Amino acid sequence: TTNRIGCTENDTSDVTVYPLPTADAGLNVTICSGKSTNLTATGGNSYKWSNNSTTSTITVSPVSNTTYNVTVTDNNKCSATDFVTVTVNPLPIASAGNNVTICQGVSTTVTATGGTTYLWDTGSNNASFTVTPNSSTSYSVIFTDANLCSATSSVSITVNPLPNADAGNDIAICEKTSTNLIASGGTKYLWNTGATTSTISVSPLIKTTYNVTVTTAANCSATDFVVVSVNLLPTVEAGINDTINYGNSTTINATSANATTYS
């Protein structure tokens, strides 16, 4: 500088320029819907995230694709910003199929859709498999899609019991007579004679087996049978005709190969 009398003097001033911190919010992340992930920033001594967190590591659970900014500050109070994007993949739309009602002893196939791999609680890895439960049962399946996102679904199999079909006790009848057969245990009946009533009248000529299918209101059926044995009529001879004088007596002698009593 120059003063009024022509004298000059010089002065200097040092300016220190600090480098900005190397802010790093980490690599972009992909998660499945409903899951959480940790984001870790480096490069400074203090941190300020766009969600107002002030730690270097934060846990986030975005419901859709989200970008998070972090401002990194070092000991020199210099700051820099970086960002990281969290991509959210939707869960697979899982279905284990419709609930099913079956009769005891009947098989059914359960089929899952919506994934690329499947894991049933039975241990099966197939989309479909056949089951024959003895009682009402639920089956759960974990679906995993191409993004390795998983969802769970279940299907219920209701098992209706079979009827206690009863065609009655075996019976023996005499030749040329009839008998009633009475079935029980259901709401509908179908005999092998074609009859659809619970009670039928039969007159078999020989020993015969009659089957009846008994059905409940739940359309579950069972079959029972009854045997009707036919005993032949006895053959009997009362003897030859005879003529006697009044006051005399004679003997009438009946004979039979298969009779046991006579009247």
What does this 3D model show about the protein?
- With 263 residues, this protein is an all-beta fold.
- It has no helices and 20 strands.
- The protein has a four-stranded mixed β-sheet with strand order 1-6-5-3, with no helix packed on it. Strands 7-12-11-9 form a four-stranded mixed β-sheet, with no helix packed on it.
- A hairpin with a 5-residue loop joins strand 5 and strand 6 (79-89).
- The radius of gyration is 48 Å and the shape is rod-shaped.
- The model has no long low-confidence stretch (mean pLDDT 94).
What is the structure about, briefly put?
The protein is an all-beta fold and 263 residues long. Helices cover 0% and strands 41% of the residues. The termini are far apart.
